[in-house]
Amino acid sequence: MPASRFHALIRGERRGPVAYLLRAGLWWARLPYAVGVWVRNRGFDRHPTRAVRVPVPVVCVGNLTLGGTGKTVCVEYIARFYREQDRAVAILSRGYGSTDGGSNDEAMMLEENLPDVPHLQGADRVKVANTAVEELESDLLVLDDGFQHRRLHRDLDVVLIDATRPLAGEYLFPRGTLREPVGSLKRAGFVLFTRCDQAPEESVQRQIDWVKERFPNLPVGRTVHQPVELVGPDGATASVAEVAGKPVATVCGVGNPESFARTVADLGAAVIASRVYPDHHAYTADDVAELTAWAETLPPDAVVLTTQKDWVKLRVGELGGRKLWAVRVGLKFLNGEERFREVLRGVIPDWG
To answer: 174: how many CB neighbours lie within 10 A of its CB?
Structure first.
């Protein structure tokens, strides 16, 4: 079942007796998954020495749910913060979605934005962590999407929660999108709510209150994904203001395509068409040919936009005679930034 249809099913958007029976079946199917998660977490909780320590601090960025919460821009923010303090940072990730042993879309995007920060990928995060320390002489590691990867000890867990997808009432996989119970937030050192501009203020505050009621000592921050610039072929850049008032067609293969559409609309553009692919989609020559034919049907003044994660894989200068631009976004704090930076500093024993 495609991810979009699965999410529509578990969120109750698909109606009818068949959808009801499927949800009932998934409710029961979540039980063995829940037992497996409990046993694994219990093992690490009771025997913390099972987690392998490396001789440098490790900061982990992760989440509780399947799908996109905006981890990549947060990883970039943290790595950039430590680089500005002259730390030798390396980013570690599993490399999900990579093909032929190459880098995946997130790695290519981070390499584009942080050329002086090495990015190591591999299923064995302990092994790549040791490689970063021993061969690259890294003195701080940022673990991407590693909240559930408990075999590597971390000094700080930053957990992201997408404000457009509240955790309250969510179920464990496969009935819902939770990778593990919400109670696992007890391991977190900081929670960042992302995309707070795309959810009603009352909803965001209600979610924060819900988390604070359960974890009163857990610091929380609010963030948004702020468009920084448009990136085009041959290193060209343009202001995001260029698309205001113009018809725009979007192309994306990310975990939360609705969020990208809202980001483009918030730039003042009129989204007239879109093509959505699965998360981490590996674009083929046939895909590019299909997109080219599609773009040729758009109005003459239409602008074609994609995400930076998609752009680093497409690597085409134009579609249907129109330039293809990527929207580069950055993490912007609405509140909690100073507290977050204080927590990041606290990871380094000899800071200052």
So the answer is: 16
